[in-house]
Amino acid sequence: MVFIDMGIWVHGYLGDITRAGIVGEGSAEQRDLLKTVQEAYTLGSQAMVPGADGKVIYQSVVDHFAAKGWDKYYVHHLSHGLGLGGDWPRIAPDGADILQVGDALSCEPGVYIPGLGGARVENMIYVDNGGPEELTKSPLDLPMGL
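Now predict its structure.
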């Protein structure tokens, strides 16, 4: 398994993207890990609406991983701010913010299991009255034809 985390900084604006893939066919467990992380991304990103409590969003992703027994391998934040605002708003186990219209933030669930591999998916999200808008326009899959 491999994942690639890339960032950008243009005129003070920050951006971020992460993709994961499996080299070759991989094992059934690795494919399940990647699928579960992608599902967690969808769960978390779709909950990023105005007024949402970051603690509730974070816990929903933890619960998703707990269903597989993987919550102990989810060891970092779900989100950090983007743009000119640095790391705020933040959704993390040590604290989370209430989301507001106009927030730009990442959604990046990841699980890292010794002996199996790790996967993380990250996109940039804009919180709008009509719901979350994905600013990253690439597919969640990282094609790995190796």
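The chain has one domain: 2-134.
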